Amino acid sequence: MRPEPGQVLHFSEDPGITRFVPHIAATARQPRPYVWAVDSARCPDYWFPRQCPRAMAWATSSTTDADRERILGGDERVHAVEYRWLDALRTAKLFAYRLPAASFRPFGEPEPHAQVATEPVEPLGPPEPVGDLLRLHEEAGIQLRVLPNLWPFWDAVTTSTAGFSGIRLRNARPRP
């Protein structure tokens, strides 16, 4: 599930959104209201139930061979979740909203991780069911690790040369 040219996507478990209005998210680190979306490269970050904590790592041009093997197992990208979220990952009903990319600008430093709009945005059509989230990972060639606890993996990733992102980590089990 990726956007077509000229589009960005917003993923949601709510299939009834007819208009996206800028808001300040409860977890926001910035004071400005936005409508949030992602481009094709960041779509896999959201192939999860909304509240599911996940740690993600990927190869970059500066990832060492040692970290590619140690962190990524030789793959290009790895996502990790905890066992207790596996059933939710299997059964989640996730929807993708296609939005006009012209309404958005890149957001994030040093590299953009999202697209944001400061004005209300209407979807280009009805939301599309995303389908089987495990199969999406498989088809995209993304290794999906299921772990008892995310923190050891997260600590290894954040001290490596791999690119990384963590979403909803506050919902992960406590550190061991």
UniProtKB/TrEMBL annotation:
Pfam families xrefs: DUF6886 (PF21820)
Source organism superkingdom: Bacteria
InterPro entries registered for this protein in UniProt: DUF6886
This protein's name: DUF6886 family protein
Native source species: Amycolatopsis halotolerans
